[in-house]
Amino acid sequence: MSTRLQDGYGPTLLVDSDLLMANSHVLLNTRPTVDLIDVLEGRCDWRDAVQKLPNGLSLLPGRTAANVLVESDAERLKDLLNTLKTTAHDFAYIIVDVPAGSGTGVMNTVSVADHTMVVLLGQATSFVDAYALIKNAYFEKNVTSFSAVVNMAKSAEQAKMIFDNFERTVSSFLPVKLVYAGYMPKMSEINASSVHGRSIDRDVMKARIYPKIDSILAALFAGGAGYTGPDAVTFHSPVP
Predict the structure, then answer these.
(1) DSSP secondary-structure letter at 50?
(2) Which of 92, 108, 124 is the last residue of a domain?
(3) Residues 6 or more apart in contact with residue 66 via CB below 8 angstroms
């Protein structure tokens, strides 16, 4: 989605806020020498850690297997995201990819973002994880508006069924707004990219993936999901 925003909508910064299992730099085929951990620990400014990719997308990479105390860095991450919102004027969009779960770092990120998009899979573990995030975001941070995208669906009908089942559960217990933003079909190219740690061919991206992402972005920009324009968006990764 960050690549699509950069290609067709405006300058975009992707922040991979996973401090333990970050993989955005792998999927985007770049090898950073400094990353988010260096920024949080004061070794460099955030601008120096941003990687400029060939298509113009900017990436603030996370780190894999970092030797950090995740919870102790949560407040510093929140401060950094607030700094980005007030100083990163070169970007029309800031996408923050958060890890699965609902720990302090994830909650702090959600509290800073202007909108939170939850990624669902048709699996019980994904439902539990997504529900925990929404519940904790509501009770701890008073976040009341979310959108959801169903990933790896076999069809539009299956995707909507997965969302409807999840939405019924959420609305039964929580007074929050949860809007369906669309789905991504199960594609062998995306699966291979994740499994083998390589970027997706650009022609495949444009022909098969971009149209689906455009539909999701249209739902966001229409305002139905509580999001009306450029700013920070948090994407919550599903449990595998």
Answers:
(1) P
(2) 108
(3) 19, 20, 37
- 233 lies in some domain: no
Task: Assign 32 to helix, strand or coil.
Answer: coil
Q: State how far the Cα of 95 lies from the Cα of 111, in Å rounded to an integer.
A: 14
Measured CA to CA, the distance from residue 234 to residue 187 in angstroms comes to: 23
Phi, psi (rounded to 5 degrees) for 82: -65, -40
Model confidence, pTM: 0.86
Residue 230 domain flag = no
* CATH number of the domain where residue 59 is located: 3.40.50.300
Q: What is the pLDDT of residues 146-205, one digit of tens each?
A: 999 999 999 999 999 999 999 999 999 999 999 999 999 988 777 776 666 666 666 777
Parallel, antiparallel, or unpaired for β 145-153 and 115-120?
Answer: parallel
Task: Name the strand (E) or helix (H) holding 149.
Answer: strand 145-153
Q: Dihedral of the CA atoms 15, 146, 223, 151 (nearest 10)?
A: 70
- How far apart are alpha carbons 93 and 32 in whole angstroms? 21
Domain count, the chain: 2
Give the structural domain span for 179: 115-222
124 and 77 within one domain: no
**Bridging pattern class, strands 51-52 and 232-236:** unpaired
